[in-house]
Amino acid sequence: xxxxxxxxxxxxxxxxxxxxxxxxxxxxxxxxxxxxxxxxxxxxxxxxxxxxxxxxxxxxxxxxxxxxxxxxxxxxxxxxxxxxxxxxxxxxxxxxxxxxxxxxxxxxxxxxxxxxxxxxxxxxxxxxxxxxxxxxxxxxxxxxxxxxxxxxxxxxxxxxxxxxxxxxxxxxxxxxxxxxxxxxxxxxxxxxxxxxxxxxxxxxxxxxxxxxxxxxxxxxxxxxxxxxxxxxxxxxxxxxxxxxxxxxxx
Length: 250
Fold this sequence. Notes:
Arc Repressor Mutant, subunit A; Helix-turn-helix domain-containing protein
């Protein structure tokens, strides 16, 4: 038996869809609903079933479905609002639980933060100057506070903006300087990245200020100490962490 041609296969598929569209119309489905259900253009659905009347009972059924869908959407919106309110309250309680970090706590947190986000020395490329890069000003501020806890001043650090060429590097640098309370004049020349017109980056608007690169000069001793702290935290002798129960404050 000869193979079917592409046109005959397409025609058979269309015939099946047209028949399904007719059944959906008999069930009281609108043109838009039929198009969505079958994955066809609305114009095609109208051409196939537009001449078929939508009886009164079917119209009532459509209206009922719309009302029910609206009620469901309202309920989901209320639940989403309640969930978001509960999450904000939980975050607020957790933030209050943290309170003010003692120096030891700040040193531990800062060491882990750097080990996750900072530049680390490698056997093939040994580097011991601490260099921390991030776009979140809160994490940058936390790292700077960590360095200050070791006896250094934030004004002794080296700052540099890394930003795409489509953005205002100077404005971004001044913003970072203001956030950290340091002089913009002390900032090093920015690192400008070539702009990609088809970028998938989300943060590309007026609030985009790139990343801030923070370098700690003469920090070999601090790097070695920090590596030891992280090793101690990750050692097998460290106690197994336990999650706090709801309402527990430690």
